Amino acid sequence: MIKKILDEIAAEPGDNMKITILGKYKDDKLLERVLYLAKSKRVKFYIKQIPEYTTDNSSPESLEWGLDGLNPLSSREFTGHKAIEWLKTILSGLSSDDAYVIERIIEKDLKIGMGTTNINKVFDGLVEKTPYMGAKPYDQKLVEKILVKGKAKSQLKMDGRYQNAIIRDGEVFVETRAGEETILTGAKFLKELSTLTDERVLNGELTITGVAVRSIANGIISSLDDILSKKEERTTAETDKKISEFFKKHAEDLGGSHVTMQDVLDRIIYTCWDIITVDEYYAKESKTPYDERFDNLEKILKDKSPSNIHLVESVDVETMEEVINHFHTVLKKGLEGTILKEMKGVWKNGKPNSQVKFKLEINLDLKIVGFQYGEKGTKNEHVISTLMLESSCGKLKTNPSGMNEKMMADVTARQKELLGTVVEIRCCGLSQSKGEWSTAHPSVEELRTDKKTFDSLESAMNIENAAKGLKIV
3-class DSSP state for residue 214? Predict the structure, then answer.
């Protein structure tokens, strides 16, 4: 029965329909158990390859029996050859359909095309949400509370693709802050992480050597993830087409048509700034002070000397002047900002007062020149989710999202009326790629039908320059 449910979900390509199908079985406790064991990263079985087995038996055991039998593997009561033989016994004792389900659990891949987020929409809170430690927005009182305690760390605020790297038993899983696994099979940094340490979780971000514009690098990594994670779902011809389209789009960004897929994977850099144990990660807290965690990470990287794993740029500071100087140094490099961290700060899920971010932020008035509906198969596919904007001179173009449901419905209903009107956006400054000007991390603030004038590229530059000298957020 469970395999039939998995097959039913896998056969549907759209996310919304997958959720609907799964919802039909939300009271199925056996399915719930299967989903948890397969999707929870907290549960690991320490077996890298499914052993050969046969299921030719007239009276197979139940799937519940098979699930119970996995406990000695996850607890490491059985390891090595004994663990493999035990798994073979479990698989051989089941029907072929139930053995398939066990295989999927062991490999942590149900092959249904559903991530943790969508599963939790049906089975609320079933799979542990990925913990993430962020930073508070700039507040002078918070900064003063950190500095009054003595020396602190000012670190480069990375603008890449955030990833937790979970290293267990020589295996590495990298996942987004939403808990979705990123598949970059064959990447050099993954091989280096596998021998770096064990039973540890690193916090960091991915960038690509030679691709200076972080938004482009993030897009490249996202495309690689899509190609590599869906190879089994697509035919060889479909995958080859995706790869061809990828290089057609990014050949110039990557340095020419001679670049191979492996070349790109080997240029991915993982820049990290924190390390905790796996148990601390799933407990969502570490009492170890930050200076000790950072020193431990620095020592590990120094001892191993990995080429594709870097330590984040970090400066010890004691005064507000030193904090601001580092912030402005980073801005002059065209980067986003800095994070001030208390030396004795603990690791915890959320945004603790021990970490404060300094980043550039400006508001611009731009003209609506077009609209874009949400991606097909998502909840926003029938409403406008993105605005297409330009400066008065047409030299600055950007497509911010960030509208709430009420605003998206309003814009969808009033497209003709709103075309050509003013929208106020918030962004982290201007960006330039291939001679084209845009904005960094834009989001819609509000529709300004009360205004009639738009910012030009020149006025936007003036606003940014003024903010760099005067404004910290």
Answer: helix
Confidence at residue 473, expressed as pLDDT on a 0 to 100 scale: 44
Q: Cα–Cα distances in Å, from 133 out to 263, 319, 348, 358?
A: 32, 24, 6, 16
Contact 268, 189 (CB under 8 A): yes
CATH topology of domain 140-359: D-amino Acid Aminotransferase; Chain A, domain 1 (3.30.470)
CB burial readout 322-339, b (16+ within 10 A) else e: bbbebbeebbeeebbbbb
- Tally of CA atoms within 13 A in the half-sphere of 400 that contains its CB: 28
Question: What DSSP character marks residue 338?
Answer: E
End-to-end distance of the chain based on CA atoms, in angstroms? 54
pLDDT tens-place string over residues 338-349: 999 999 999 999
Residue with tokens 């670190």: 155
Look up residue 78 and give its DSSP letter: S
Q: CB of 43 within 8 A of CB of 82? A: no
Q: Which two tokens stand for residue 150?
A: 């003595």
pLDDT (0 to 100) of residue 469: 63
For residue 45, give Cα distances in angstroms to 1, 41, 97.
Answer: 24, 10, 20
**Helix, strand or coil, per DSSP, at residue 7:** helix
Q: What is the pLDDT of residues 219-276, one digit of tens each?
A: 999 999 999 988 888 899 999 999 999 999 998 899 887 899 999 999 999 999 999 9
What is d(CA 450, CA 434) in angstroms, rounded to the nearest whole number?
Answer: 34
- pTM, to two decimals: 0.75
Beta bridge partners, 304, equal none
- Closest-CA residue to 193 (of 262, 270, 290, 281): 270
Answer whether 139's CB lies under 8 Å from 37's CB. Answer: no
Q: Does domain 2-122 have CATH number 1.20.140.10?
A: no
For residue 450, CA distances in Å to 29, 67, 126, 340, 447 come to: 55, 63, 47, 39, 9
Q: What φ, ψ does residue 440 adopt, rounded to 5°?
A: -95, 125
CATH assignment of 362-470, given 3.40.228.10, 3.30.750.24, 3.10.580.10, 2.40.50.140? Answer: 2.40.50.140
Nearest Cα to Cα of residue 317 among 141, 144, 145, 151:
151
Domain boundaries, the chain: 2-122, 140-359, 362-470
User: What residue type is 278 in one-letter code?
Assistant: V
| Beta-strand pair 200-208/268-277 | antiparallel
Give the side-chain half-sphere CA count within 13 A for 58.
Answer: 0
